[in-house]
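Question (not urgent): is this output format expected?
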Amino acid sequence: MRLLALTFALALALPVQAATPSQRLADLATRYYDAQSRFDPLTATGSGDNRFDDQLALALAPAERARRFAAYRGFLKELATVPATALPAGERLTRELLENS
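Got this back:
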């Protein structure tokens, strides 16, 4: 039992490996797509993503627009922490598309 407790304690003490730029970009792109689909369920449905079919009415009240813009600013801020030079060529394109969408 002590060995199990010691093993668990040592595992907790190990440093967590930081995600690579490619992993961070993939996670960011996935979260961006999910947010975009929630914000615009009509486009999501047109793209074959049916998760938001029950929300096809578009809400464009000022508070909703502010919430969306804040989310987009957050994505851009996070994207700035993923250097393009650390990514393979194909992922640089993904990064550029996220930056300019």
